[in-house]
Amino acid sequence: MIGNMEESCSAGMFAIMWDNTGLEAVTRAPHEADRTWALLQNKPPPDMPNLNMWKLRARYNSQRHYEIYLITAVPGINEDDIRDMFNNNPQAAADTIRRIGQQVYSDRVDKNRTVIS
Length: 117
Fold this sequence. Notes:
Blueprint: H1 2-10, E1 12-19, E2 22-29, H2 32-40, H3 51-60, E3 67-73, H4 79-88, H5 90-100, E4 102-106
């Protein structure tokens, strides 16, 4: 059990935001254990990305159909790896993140939605 806990704490957690024109933001999010250890050591806890500002941007630019997700990646993955994934194959990157991530916000266009029947 302790080994699994150590693995999950060392895994990278990321907040990712993209729209219909591509990736806009990717930032590392601190794990809860990182925050707890910092507080126990009387150090300032690492900051979370300001997802409320991201959601506000998405709502005021609804024509761009933003999506915001939180994901946990295997140890060794960093922000540049995620950017490279979006640069090399943006559709596969978005599909993968939708499948493994936790949705925070989505204004994704549903192609099956009928406007006029």
